[in-house]
Structure formats: structure tokens, C-alpha cells
Write a structure and sequence with these properties.
The protein has 261 residues and is mostly beta strands. The chain has no helices and 21 strands. The protein starts with 13 loop residues before the first strand and ends with a strand.
Length: 261
């Protein structure tokens, strides 16, 4: 028995190949599925002998080296769950789905309103969601967008309200946005807030075994090759297990540098 699983981020598209059946699962995105079909082991006829969509036999023309599963004729709703079963003869090369991403949702959300309180609570209302994709909340710090949390998307028609509590604002201006990623990524506009938090400072202990911050902060420690060696939130980082040498310390809204002796 052969079994292969292709798992796509957040919303699942699964392709499994067993003796006699290839299964494709996803969400209907107003697109059809294309299949590469082999000849049967005897060299007469083709490998695929039937296709089922959500348990119903289709009337697609499958006696060809490549064929199309016409989902449009099945009166499916956009975003509806789909299970496709491609039945094939034993002993032949299993049919291959050429465009499995066609069942992966594309982010279509629109943000109607987005606000943020001084305490770091972000609220937004979205509409036109193309499926239950999660919203990734991102903060701009250290010259890049950093993911700070996730909120499950509802994905049905109409307007939906969401909220997310930011754990840590850094000193100065803070910028946030939300993102959904399916077959591609889509971003909201940025929202900004200025924090009254004092600027954070870091220091290296005399024995070079820890980094101390004057505040609680998100941090990332990189070696000189650009690899992350420490990451988290707090006012202290244990670096006793790091080798001697130079490191970059990303914290607050600043990037510092240190040498461990």
C-alpha cells in the first residue's frame, strides 16, 4: 500500500494514494481539478475507472491521458468542503492531481474597521472572507514583521468581529497588521499606536551567562551567521550554553550587539 500525504498550511488539503483510490480534500474555490491519467497495467484502457465528489459519481470523461473534474456542474457553494475520490485499477501508476492548490482558499477578507486601545487590545471587523483561514497578528519591529499571535477566522458570509490582546508594546511607535495566508497572502492596512513605555536597555552579566533587560520584552538572539539561538519574552535570557563569540540581540524596538567571552 502506498500512502502520501500533502498538508498545506492552516486549511487542509490532503492527497492520499492507496490501492485503488486517490483522495483529494479541500474547499471549493470555483476552480476545476485536472488529473494526469496512466494506461492500465495491461496496456489496454486507462488507470482511472470512476471519480466521486462528496460521495456522488461524476460523469467526467476519464478515458484519456489527462482529464478534468468539472466541479462547476455540481452546484457547489464557494468554500464548501470537498472530498474527491479517484478510483483506479490495481497495479497501474496512480492518477496524479496536477493542481491540488485549486482547493486551497485564497484570502479575500476586507477590513471594515480596525482599532487599538492604549492597553494593546486590537479589535477589527472583517467581511468577504473566503474560508475559515486564521488571522495572523503581526507587529513591525527590528526592521521586519514579526508574528505575535493568531485568531481563528470564521470564514462565512457577512461581517465578523475579532479581537487580540497584545502581550508587549515596545517603546515609541508600534505598528500592527493582520494577515491571512492560503494559496497566497493578504494583509490589512497598518494600525499604529505610540507607547509611553520607557526605552529598554540590555546588559551582559560579568560571567557572560545571561542577558538582563530593564523591561519585559520580546527578544531574539542571533549568532553572526544569522541563526536564531534564543527567542522568547522576559527580562532575562540564559545564554550559559552559547559558545563564545559575537551575537546580535533584538529587543524592544532596538537591535544591539554583544560579545560573549
Amino acid at each position: 500500500m502506498k500512502k502520501a500525504i500533502v498538508s498545506v498550511l492552516f486549511l487542509l488539503i490532503i492527497i492520499t494514494s492507496q490501492a485503488g483510490v486517490v483522495v483529494v480534500e479541500g474547499k471549493y474555490q470555483n476552480k476545476n481539478i485536472y488529473v494526469q491519467n496512466a494506461y492500465s497495467e495491461a496496456g489496454v484502457g486507462f488507470c482511472t475507472f470512476a471519480v466521486y465528489v462528496n460521495g456522488k459519481l461524476t460523469n467526467d470523461e476519464i478515458n484519456a491521458t489527462a482529464f478534468e473534474i468539472d466541479l462547476a456542474q455540481l452546484q457547489l457553494k464557494f468554500g464548501q468542503d470537498i472530498v474527491i475520490k479517484i478510483m483506479h485499477k490495481d497495479g497501474c501508476t496512480p492518477p496524479r492531481v496536477l493542481n491540488p492548490d485549486a482547493l486551497k482558499p485564497v484570502p479575500t477578507f476586507e477590513v471594515v474597521t480596525m482599532k487599538m486601545t492604549n492597553e494593546g487590545l486590537i479589535t477589527w471587523t472583517a467581511k468577504n472572507e473566503g474560508g475559515p483561514l486564521p488571522y495572523m497578528v503581526e507587529q513591525f519591529r527590528w526592521n521586519k514583521w514579526v508574528s505575535v499571535g493568531e485568531v481563528a477566522g470564521i470564514g462565512t458570509p457577512g461581517e465578523h468581529d475579532y479581537k487580540f490582546q497584545v502581550t508587549a508594546l515596545h517603546s515609541g511607535e508600534n505598528k500592527f497588521r493582520v494577515r491571512q495566508t492560503g494559496f497566497q497572502s493578504k494583509y490589512s492596512a497598518e494600525i499604529k499606536i505610540v507607547s509611553s513605555e520607557p526605552k529598554c536597555i540590555f546588559s551582559l552579566s560579568k560571567n557572560s551567562k545571561q542577558i538582563d533587560f530593564t523591561c519585559g520584552t520580546l527578544y531574539e538572539v542571533y549568532d553572526y551567521y544569522g541563526s536564531v539561538v534564543k527567542k522568547g519574552y522576559g527580562s532575562r535570557v540564559d545564554i550559559a550554553n552559547l559558545q563564545r563569540g559575537g551575537y546580535y540581540v533584538c529587543y524592544d524596538n532596538t537591535i544591539g550587539e554583544l560579545k560573549k567571552k
